Amino acid sequence: MVSGSGTNLQAILDAVKAGELNAEIAAVGADKPCTGLDRAAAAGVETFLIEPADYADREQWNRALEEKIASYTPDYVVFAGFMRIVDAQLVARFENRIINTHPALLPAFPGAHGVRDALAHGVKITGLTVHFVDSGVDTGTIIAQAAVPVEAGDTEESLHERIKVQERWLLVRTLAEFAALPNPQNP
Ligand code: GRF
């Protein structure tokens, strides 16, 4: 699932193509039209769009998203820059199978502005976290982390770009480790 530029997704697509990640990407979904979806389409991967504005309320949107994801019977669901909170029912449906990446060292700086908040706090080291999604906001079990130093003169953009370089690498590496494990749906 993506919401934005999709560079994390691109890293996954490239790793699969290069044979460095033994996975099949069943589909890429988004909550709005975005470059991430275009990247998936360009790679020949099936795409879908489930926009909140098309549903009566957040509950209906969650159910539509849950059913759409389930229709692909995925082993894992990756939130690669997917900027939406999903509800507890959707999380339970894919318990310990939804993997998110967050651009801060959780449990510090959860939420939509992890990079901005870390910079505003004045931390000297921040980073990224790959974690399972639970029903809280960026509170699920931590799978992997990497640290990124804050440099003098960093802006939110410059810091986020350096974090994303590490994020793409760590996300692909983490997925490769999961891909080597027994199938979580049929262990
Ligand atoms: C990543 O830093 C992700 O952690 C955050 O948004 C960014 C998405 O980047 N939630 P991209 O769309 O993969 O380029």
From TrEMBL:
Residues forming the catalytic site: 102
Pathway: Purine metabolism; IMP biosynthesis via de novo pathway; N(2)-formyl-N(1)-(5-phospho-D-ribosyl)glycinamide from N(1)-(5-phospho-D-ribosyl)glycinamide (10-formyl THF route): step 1/1
InterPro entries: Formyl_transf_N (IPR002376), Formyl_transf_N_sf (IPR036477), GART (IPR004607)
GO molecular function: phosphoribosylglycinamide formyltransferase activity
Enzyme class: transferase
Catalyzed reactions: N(1)-(5-phospho-beta-D-ribosyl)glycinamide + (6R)-10-formyltetrahydrofolate = N(2)-formyl-N(1)-(5-phospho-beta-D-ribosyl)glycinamide + (6S)-5,6,7,8-tetrahydrofolate + H(+)
Superkingdom of the source species: Bacteria
Residues noted as binding N(1)-(5-phospho-beta-D-ribosyl)glycinamide in the record, renumbered to the chain: 6-8
GO cellular component, one term: cytosol
Function: Catalyzes the transfer of a formyl group from 10-formyltetrahydrofolate to 5-phospho-ribosyl-glycinamide (GAR), producing 5-phospho-ribosyl-N-formylglycinamide (FGAR) and tetrahydrofolate.
Similarity section: Belongs to the GART family.
Protein name per its UniProtKB record: Phosphoribosylglycinamide formyltransferase
Organism: Rothia aeria
